């Protein structure tokens, strides 16, 4: 199993993973739109033998500091719960930190994302259409430079059908 940056030739296999992992095509479309918009700042695949079995994308947010949004993240259903999502997310966060991003936001289940250090309390002060118990933040390389203000995901998220 290796994790590497996605490449153009991976697009169809990534789409298959996303369509299998989620109930509909929205997340697969979102990934393609983020890519087309130039917002796929960090995009990684997990490859086992020749098969792409997982994918994660991070895109820039409009925020009071240099922030990325994590998501979507998807693992092929028959490969879930074997640490693939965990490895993809940890590698992406390490790359974000190395590139001096100051924070990462994610919308999801705190039961899953807390293990990476994401905290709903850290996101509480920020105004967002997604504000609530499922919006979490993680500081990279030091405390967040601001604890309030407005945060918006990349435009493709707003076009989700
Ligand atoms: C969520 C997802 C990316 C996690 O990847 P994964 O490779 O299956 O997960 P990992 O093996 O890294 O982690 C497994 C752990 O996460 C937990 N877990 C997995 N999905 C979870 C969820 N939705 N909520 C809470 N916990 C979850 C498991 O219980 C397990 O915990 P344990 O290690 O304490 O037993 C994957 O299950 C998936 O693609 N799900 C469908 C798409 C999705 O919901 N994506 C996230 C929203 S963008």
TrEMBL record:
The keyword Transferase applies. Residues 1-145 form the N-acetyltransferase domain. PROSITE patterns: GNAT. It comes from the Bacteria. The keyword Transferase applies. Keywords: Transferase. This is N-acetyltransferase. It comes from Phreatobacter stygius.
């Amino acid at each position: 199993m290796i994790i590497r940056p996605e490449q153009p030739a991976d697009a169809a296999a990534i789409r298959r993973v996303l369509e299998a992992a989620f109930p509909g095509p929205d997340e697969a479309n979102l990934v393609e739109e983020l890519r087309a918009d130039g917002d796929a700042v960090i995009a990684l695949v997990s490859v086992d033998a020749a098969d792409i079995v997982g994918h994660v994308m991070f895109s820039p947010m409009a925020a009071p500091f240099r922030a990325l949004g994590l998501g979507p993240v998807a693992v092929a259903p028959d490969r879930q719960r074997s640490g693939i999502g965990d490895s993809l997310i940890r590698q992406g966060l390490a790359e974000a930190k190395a590139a001096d991003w100051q924070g990462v936001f994610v919308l999801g289940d705190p039961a899953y994302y807390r293990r990476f250090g994401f905290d709903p309390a850290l996101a509480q002060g920020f105004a967002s259409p997604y504000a609530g118990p499922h919006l979490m933040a993680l500081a990279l390389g030091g405390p967040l430079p601001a604890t309030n203000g407005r945060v918006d995901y990349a435009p493709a998220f707003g076009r989700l059908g």
